[in-house]
Amino acid sequence: MKKTGVLLIQLGTPDSPSKKDVRRYLSEFLNDPRVIDLPWLGRKLLVNGIIVPFRTSNSSKIYKELWDFGNGISPLITHTESVTKLTQERFKAEENVHVHMAMRYQNPSMDVVLEEMRKLKYDRIVILPLFPQYASASTGSAIEKAMNIIRKWWVIPEINVVSQFYDNPAYIDAVVDRAKDFDLSSYDRILFSYHGLPTRQVDKVYDENLCEDQPCETEINEKNQFCYKATCFATSRLIAEKLGIKEGDYTVGFQSRLDKNWLEPFSDKLIEKWAKEGAKRVLAFSPAFVADCLETIIEIGTEYHEDFQEMGGEAVHLVPSSNDHPRFVDCLEDEIRKYLN
């Protein structure tokens, strides 16, 4: 068997909740042209002149809350380290398979981890971004960064890339199994909430027409198979089918928007609407996140819950992410073995 190195890539997290570390993280993250896809000057003025200076202080407080939840460490780091270790254990019989982890932004950095992998002289490297649904701002950015580092190597080994795995049965099973801890019939509304994207970014997937011209809410086809909106809706259908949730009994929403020209419906607006309609209990899934993080624990689990209560509701309950669930480890093992065989 070829000596194989596997690189699991997560989005990233500040090194600490301090303003200095949060500022560094936000600056690196938001200056990525795949994240904010504006011309260079416009992006620099927006990010460095407005967003980072005005968001750092508040973001630092939110990350402090997240660190407290994670017993003094980022849950994203904890869960990613755990799933990396568990995935490595799946290959203990194959001495030539070694699993590494890195963050797209901050630490452990891709530059450092890939340099370690270069020195190990792998015959093959499998790059596996931990984003189930492809988006240029997440998967695309992680792959681009890896390729930009590897292309400078004198010896470039065989490279395999996993672009998305939203329809991997084991990934779906992990989400479904997490939901079994909740009595679905006791909730008035069920929400599948995904990280938002600017509509212009999903439009760029298509050579002709726009995302709104495609049946992204109802089917996957050759044209929209890498459209983030289409795969989010497809993920929700797969999970709902396994849980016996009928079409019409759940809603897909998008969170964490920067402005109004992002994918709709907006998850926070759905929560507000349901509260006004008299709903008392909401169950929220977050299938775009395989590890619990700020967007799940704080945004949904805390902020949505508190806002919903203030508007008359009783509770918004969050279904935990896959984290290090055995079926999610099955998913990663399966995706890796596709290239080993």
TrEMBL record:
<dbReference type="InterPro" id="IPR033659">
    <property type="entry name" value="Ferrochelatase_N"/>
</dbReference>
<keyword id="KW-0456">Lyase</keyword>
<dbReference type="GO" id="GO:0006783">
    <property type="term" value="P:heme biosynthetic process"/>
</dbReference>
<comment type="pathway">
    <text>Porphyrin-containing compound metabolism; protoheme biosynthesis; protoheme from protoporphyrin-IX: step 1/1.</text>
</comment>
<dbReference type="GO" id="GO:0005737">
    <property type="term" value="C:cytoplasm"/>
</dbReference>
<dbReference type="GO" id="GO:0046872">
    <property type="term" value="F:metal ion binding"/>
</dbReference>
<dbReference type="GO" id="GO:0004325">
    <property type="term" value="F:ferrochelatase activity"/>
</dbReference>
<feature type="binding site">
    <location>
        <position position="195"/>
    </location>
    <ligand>
        <name>Fe(2+)</name>
    </ligand>
</feature>
<keyword id="KW-0479">Metal-binding</keyword>
<keyword id="KW-0408">Iron</keyword>
<dbReference type="InterPro" id="IPR001015">
    <property type="entry name" value="Ferrochelatase"/>
</dbReference>
<comment type="function">
    <text>Catalyzes the ferrous insertion into protoporphyrin IX.</text>
</comment>
<keyword id="KW-0350">Heme biosynthesis</keyword>
<feature type="binding site">
    <location>
        <position position="295"/>
    </location>
    <ligand>
        <name>Fe(2+)</name>
    </ligand>
</feature>
<comment type="similarity">
    <text>Belongs to the ferrochelatase family.</text>
</comment>
<dbReference type="InterPro" id="IPR033644">
    <property type="entry name" value="Ferrochelatase_C"/>
</dbReference>
<protein>
    <recommendedName>
        <fullName>Ferrochelatase</fullName>
        <ecNumber>4.98.1.1</ecNumber>
    </recommendedName>
</protein>
<keyword id="KW-0963">Cytoplasm</keyword>
<dbReference type="Pfam" id="PF00762">
    <property type="entry name" value="Ferrochelatase"/>
</dbReference>
<keyword id="KW-0627">Porphyrin biosynthesis</keyword>
